[in-house]
Design brief:
alpha/beta; Aspartate Aminotransferase, domain 1; Aspartate Aminotransferase, domain 2; 7-stranded mixed β-sheet; 3-stranded antiparallel β-sheet; about 15% strand; globular
Amino acid sequence: MSKTPLTGQRPLFDIPPDVAWFNCASRTPMLKATQAAGHVGIASRVQPWTMDSAALHDQAEHIRTLFAGLIGAQAGDIAIQPSASYGLATAAANLTAARGQAILVLEDQFPSNVFVWMQKAEATGARMVTVPRPGDGDWTAAVLDHLDSDTAIAALPPCHWIDGTRVDLETIGARCRNLGVALVVDATQWLGAAPFDVARVRPDFLVAAAYKWLFCPHGMSFLYAAAAHQQGVAFEHHDYNHPATGASIEGALVYDPDMSPGARRYDVGQTYNPVLLPMAEAALVQVAAWTPQAVQSTLAPITDTITAAARNMGYSTPPAGRGVAHITSLGKDSPAPDGMIAALAAKDIHASLRGNRLRLAPHVHISEDDVRRLIEALRNVWP
């Protein structure tokens, strides 16, 4: 895939020239094409006799194929779901942990990928093990130090959501397989912005909320299930994941217990949403056209420029070589001032405070002027 940096992408978005949006790890700006697709979808609900139900099925399959292409999977490995937490709950329901075994997470991991495992541990008598944040930013070594034969499940991200420090899941995945540990990946803060290959990582389950780096609308998420888990327990039973039943609704209704093949059994009810599906399709077509490799190549010099300038002003940044191009963070020994995010927003510079650090998450819409204005604001916003 192309690694050539992308230029001239801002016209794809409705972002005024004086707005600097560095908050993509919270939510990406919607593409104009996605907005237009949403208008078409809403129009079909306003005049439901114009809706093409067969086209919705085809759209869902195209979306599976597009998402699968981003991770090196097949369409049949993918379920369409409403949230990452739904997918993580699906994974938890289909994995086992015995009394005394460990479920491994990172310190300050995103709550959706912690609460479900706390519940799992309480229900099974397993114990939660939290990997402390390493001082050198090497999450990979820290995780490997905590994996052992008593670990049942490792629930991890490819990078930390607060500062973008990387977790080498290929190396960790190999150790998990050697130990018989199930690997569950929350790739919400990765997919679409950075490359991922399920054949190399080999997770048991992977989830990604799609309203961040996949540019889809809220209410869209995806679940990858490895082949060994494609006959598991689904949360919902409906005519979409019972195909013989779905096919029978115009005649003699058949309640056939056989479920859809592959990961489709894990689809949420009302999968064929006439508004969300066309919007997600438009978004994923563009994400695939950009390629994650080219996104990283585009963002690396932007992030490097910002972090270099910030260090010269006394900010701390993630250790060199440990981060990613699409998420970074800045901090100081003193707490972030009250109202810092609002003060930046008053200058139309938008970012997030996470873990007492200023999280910056650019994408291909960022301009040289956006970077200049951010760096200038950093001089005074955190004394």
